[in-house]
Amino acid sequence: MYLAIFLGAIKEILKKFQLENKIPALLGGLGNIVTADQDWELWELSQSIDEDRVLQFLNSGDFSNFSEKLENSKFLGKFENFILKYGWRSSHELEMSNLRWRENPTILFQTLASYVNSTFKLKKDVVEKNRREEKIQVENEIREKIPFLQKKMVLWAIPNLQQLSRLRENGKAAFVRVLGVERMCLLKLGKFLQVESQLQVEKMLQVENISQVENGLQADDIFHANFHDLCKFWKSEMTLDEFSAKIRGNKIQLEKWKRMSPPDVFLGTQPIYPIVDISSSDDRKILLGTGGSAGKFRGRSRVLRNVAEISRLDPMDILVTSTTDPSWTPLFLKCSGVVVERGGMLSHGAIVARELGIPAVVGVAGLFSQVEDGDILEIDGSLGTVEIISQSA
What we know:
The protein contains 13 helices and eleven strands. It has helices at 2-15, 23-26, 34-47, 52-60, 66-69, 74-86, 106-116, 124-145, 148-206, 227-234, 240-258, 348-356, 367-370; strands at 265-267, 270-272, 278-280, 285-288, 290-293, 296-303, 317-321, 337-340, 360-362, 376-380, 385-390.
């Protein structure tokens, strides 16, 4: 709440002096952002690889039994340290049923393979230095152009906004770490239920002479049980059959929900759908969003719907996607710009893009209906604009 208040107050003052497009630069180069640190560490790990068998492993695409294949390599020790530090992350990590990186590191190996084969030569200290200089330049501009009282208010609010922005990202990361522990605990319970369910299935097949029964529960079915039903079952107020039926019903309902496209916002019970904001003339078509990270870039759009598509991304591409979470941010180091259909200036994608020094525009309503894979775009991460220069055939 306080973050939104500080941002709103600064925006209103800067708007009066045509400086509102400078906000992304003010919020860049903060340092100590756990998700950005994670991305840089993965990048630096890729740049340290100098063993042929590790390179062969990454380029093979077969990442099974990686501990055995990479035994005694320098890389394996470094990778295990990375997993120890960040293995609690995953794609859509607020969904507890999703596998964590420590359980399935495939996407990390795919990302490392993509980094190794990239022509980019990024330097963390150079990027951070550039972001700090941009921030200082904007602060000096504020001192020159804004009257004394309002200037004092803005310069007082900026450090608070920066600190709250850092706390938002790091706080969410800490919460996800706790979810990783809760996931492990629930899986232990799920394995117990799996054994009990399998014993019941075998009894029905053998003792009761029934030829066909429903398949038994799997360990990860525990994530489809609600807390109320789980407590009732644990207190023996619900039989295993009843509990299993509840889980099967919940899984069916979930599949129905997955096929829906709910709005981002409800006003009471009324859904609010975003309005596609387009500025167009005879020869220009510009999509309007929110500036997420300062900078301009013109390049080819690469529309991705899944993190695993990282191999399709080239260094001079602009990543175009519907939404991002921290599992997407390693891809930011493989492209030159980011455009996201959802999110705002304080979304995780925008925060990390600012730290990595990559231009980003977020909250572009109707993006997927307007931009196709291969279009040439020009993005401005300060103004929040996406201009479609030419469309792919």
